[in-house]
Every structure is written in structure tokens, then in C-alpha cells.
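ok trying again, last paste got cut off:
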Amino acid sequence: GLDSIPGAIVGVWVPEMGEWVAAFGLADKDADRAMATGDKVRIASNTKTFTATLVLLLADEGLLDLDDRLEDYIPGVPYGDEITVRQLLNMAAGIFSFSEDEGFLDAFTADPLMEMTPQEGLDIALSHEPDFAPGQGWHYSDTNYEILGMIVEQVTGNDIEDEMHRRIIEPLGLSHTSFPTTPEMPEGHARGYVLQKDGTMVDYTLVSPSVPWAGGAMISNLEDLRVWAKALATGELLSEEMHAQQLDWVEVPELANVEGKYGLGIMSLGGFQGHNGAIFGYNSTALYLPEDDTTIVVLVNKSTNSSQESMLIFIALAQMLFPEQFPAL
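nice, full thing came through this time. structure:
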């Protein structure tokens, strides 16, 4: 529950009303250090919005096509001659998510510093039957983004972190955002915690970025995510045509009584566009409402790999500000 969260950082930017930025609680329980609004956190699956945008930038340049088949990049995946890059992006590919494999979860929980190559993640996924045939359903899969990262590196000949810096982080001036290659956090970060079954809080600040990788390794802070949420939802870096394809939505199961849709690495929740993320120690939600030029970012330093702390806070804020779009639960 929300009562056990050590610390949180919240930003709300509404043109007619102004802005509200606040930090609550502790960034470091042992040192009794207060959370600061600039503290960096792992943004987990918010990374997918960056990776997807990177793929769309490469498509804009003609280095790949959204209708390219997976088989042409990574042979041997079931349905690989049918699965498209677009279906990897919008979670319609049907490939099992390695993060749902129980053996993987046990290993990662026991050793958050474990190294994993993208191919190893794919191998875990391929030990399971596909969730459905391509285009015949929707299921959130971290494996899709491991594959997309591999495709980025294939078509550019560069490491994904270098492409990310050159094509997204630097052009937008996101000076507190990084794609780490080691478990260390940069200076000025909140420590991250996982609540155990016995009620104790265990420090999970150090996590191997090789595990979530292109689907969840990035680090950022409130101000950079404010800039990014709007740049993402407005297609600032993309051609108009590519941005239109990015916002070609697939209906997904309702979340919290709110219409949910998923595009090419971006979700829509009651009209708000962006993403959320959960990884050991850190939980984050960064969403932008185009018609009202409103941004809400929530960062929390307590999480499992699948919990919803920041989303619950976001929904509470959205219900206060936009009651017509977010009916009471």
C-alpha cells in the first residue's frame, strides 16, 4: 500500500492553474536523507517510450520499416515471418514476456545484480508457447523490447545507449537522463526499496541494467520526465506521419475504470499519454494530456517489478483535476 512508501516526488503542470512540484519522505532511510525534487530514479518501463521513439526515428531515416518482419532481423522465432516491428512496439506480437517466467523472477529477486544478455531474455521467452498468433491479441511483453533493442543495434551498428544519447537525450537537453551499463546510480539519486513479506524494507538500489535493458534500464528525474512526457506525446522528434502511426491505438483491458489504449511504445489512459514503470526499488508514471497541455509525473522509491504505487497516486491526482475523465473508483 501507499502508507509504506519511503519517499515520493510529484509534479503537476497545468497551464491555467500553474505548477505543483513536491518531494515527500525519505530518499535514504539509513542516512535519514529527505527526498529532493531533483533526485534521480530508475524509470523502468518508461524506458519503452524512449526505445520506441528511437525505433521510429530510425524508421523516419529509412534504416528500417515498421512492417519489416522479425525473421529478417532475428531468425528462428515462432511466427517470425509474420511478426512485424510494429507488433513488437504495440504489444500485439504475442511473444511471451520473459519477466513472467517464474525461474527468471526467482533468480532476479535473489540476485538483482545478475547479468543477462538480450539473447538470454529471448531464450527464456522462447521456452514458453506464444501468448497468441501475431495481431490476434494484446499482451504486455518485455521480450518485445529486448528484441527491439537488438534491432536498433543491428541497423545502427552502435550500442543502444549511444544511439539513445545522440538521438534523444542530447537533442532534448535531458541532462539528468541516462541509459546505464552498470548497476551504479549516478550522483544525486534516491535509494530504492522493496517491501518484504515480513514487513521489512530491503534496499534494492543496485540493479543490473542488463536485465531490463531496452525495455527498462534508464534513469531520469522529475524535470527531465516533464520535458520528455510532452516531447513524446506531441511527437517533437518525429515526422508528422511517424507520430500519427505512434498514436495508432490498440484497445487494452480497462485499468481503474479508465479507457486504456496502447500505441507504439506509448499508452493512453483517460486521454493522458505516456507510460509507467516498475522495477525493484523504483516506481514511476509520466503522462501528458494533449488537449489541456497538462503533465503529471509521479516518482516513488518503493516497488516490485510489477507494482502500481505511482499509478495509484497519478489516478488520485487525475481524479481531482479531471473528474470527468477519471470517474471515482
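cool. The CA atoms of residues 42 and 95 lie 25 Å apart. The mean pLDDT is 96.
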